[in-house]
Write a structure and sequence with these properties.
hydrolase activity; GTP binding; 9 helices; GIMA/IAN/Toc; G_AIG1; Rossmann fold
């Protein structure tokens, strides 16, 4: 089945140009399955596994009923602590190359089946440290596991409003404007799939409108895009000069090597920035955690001291109550 049955809700009118969304999240949260739900077909490999099924950044495209194009970029488990910084930096560059016209929304895939982890919090804040706070203006939280909530007669509002919802998750959702949507990637009901995709695309349109129709970009994006366009222009120029096939092949190889060297330099720069900012972020989170522990310890000591004082007062009152009262003697009046 293709994605042509999706009909986008037009609550926030924007141009009918292609939309590009990027899926990020921890392995097992359902990134690829969510991508397949959006596209309306099994475009990405998706199966339950303790190890990431997606091993490299991929882009798949669908054309919607109104002719609008949706580009979905699926990434490996960039939120996994086991993934090395050099791999992450390479995949970030690959993601930028695939999203050549910019990113309209970043879909952070979370799961209602697992508790929001410090690993996920660190990864999201790491994106902020690397790309700046503006990144949150483009974020939408997509919660997979809608089938499980439905079985328990729960809504996403119930899940997020409960006492078990961790404060760090609430803080992250607040930073991205509380834009969130629930997905059931297991549903066989086509109308239900279309409805949840409509809700998501409505949020994407909202993000586009709130950002003045401008996709996300920054210095790193601009530099990668410049290198990609430079290579394309050089190749087109060589093709128009009337060189022989052998000469064109030789020149293209030279240009490709130069291009790869430039992208390697950008990748190393991203990796260096990631290491530095990750260390700073980890130290900040460790300090905050230590401060919370100290505050909890202080509160526990104060509570214990208060309880000890109350017990002492009760003991003193009970002892006073149990103490025999002295008898008063009567004086005979003569």
């Amino acid at each position: 089945m293709d994605g042509s049955s999706i009909d986008v809700v037009r609550e926030h009118p924007v141009s009918n140009a292609a939309r590009t969304v990027v899926l990020v999240g921890r392995t097992g949260n359902g990134k690829s399955a969510t991508g397949n739900s959006i596209l309306g077909e099994r475009a990405f490999i998706s199966k339950r596994s303790s190890r990431g099924v997606t091993t490299t950044t991929e882009l798949k495209t669908a054309i919607l009923r109104d002719g609008q194009q949706i580009n979905v970029v699926d990434t490996p488990g960039l939120f996994d602590s086991s993934v090395k910084s050099d791999v992450i930096s390479k995949e970030i560059v690959q993601c930028i190359k695939l999203a050549k016209d910019g990113i309209h929304a970043i879909l952070v895939i979370l799961s209602t089946r697992t508790r929001f982890s410090q690993e996920e919090q660190s990864a999201i804040l790491g994106l902020q440290a690397l790309f700046g706070s503006k990144i949150f203006d483009y974020m939408i939280a997509v919660f997979s596991g809608g089938d499980e909530l439905e079985e328990n007669d729960e809504t996403l509002e119930d899940y997020l409003g409960g006492r078990d919802c961790p404060e760090p998750l609430k803080e992250i959702l607040g930073l991205c404007g509380n834009r969130c949507v629930l997905f059931d990637n297991k549903t066989k009901d086509e109308s239900k799939r279309v409805e949840q995709v409509q809700r998501l695309l409505s949020l994407v349109n909202l993000v586009i409108a709130q950002n003045g129709g401008r996709p996300y970009t920054d210095e790193i994006f601009a530099e990668v895009k410049k290198e990609v366009m430079k290579l394309r222009d050089q190749q087109e120029d060589v093709a128009s000069k009337g060189y022989s096939k052998q000469e064109i092949s030789h020149l293209n190889e030279q240009m490709q090597r130069a291009h790869d060297l430039q992208l390697k330099r950008i990748t190393e720069m991203i990796e260096s920035n990631m290491r530095e900012k990750t260390m700073m972020l980890e130290q900040k989170l460790a300090d905050e955690h230590a401060a919370r522990l100290r505050a909890e310890e202080t509160a526990q000591k104060a509570q214990k001291s208060s309880q000890d004082e109350i017990r002492k007062l009760r003991g003193d009152l009970e002892a006073e109550r149990q103490r025999p009262k002295p008898r008063t003697s009567r004086c005979a009046i003569m």
